[in-house]
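User: Can you recover a sequence for this backbone? Please restate the input before giving your answer.

Assistant: Of course. Working from this structure:
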């Protein structure tokens, strides 16, 4: 718990990585790389072991996907 301070990069319970933006007692608020906020117990978070560990975290961008309708003129 002592390693957790605001600004530290962690891997949270969802398996995603982000930075701690707020600590409220035993709960932490983590700003994920996709822009979402994960809130949970600090014991569900861990410090990444190395760069490879951090890069292995999924980046959930499903909410950011857009359905693109092709322009008819571009097909000609």
């Amino acid at each position: 718990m002592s390693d957790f301070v605001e600004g530290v990069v962690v891997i949270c319970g969802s398996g995603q990585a982000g930075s701690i933006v707020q600590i409220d007692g035993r709960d932490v608020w983590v700003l994920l790389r996709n822009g979402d906020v994960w809130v949970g117990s600090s014991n569900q978070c861990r410090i990444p072991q190395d760069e490879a560990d951090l890069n292995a975290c999924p980046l959930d961008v499903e909410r950011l996907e857009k359905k693109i309708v092709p322009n008819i003129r571009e097909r000609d």
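That completes the design. The helical segments are 51-55, 72-75.
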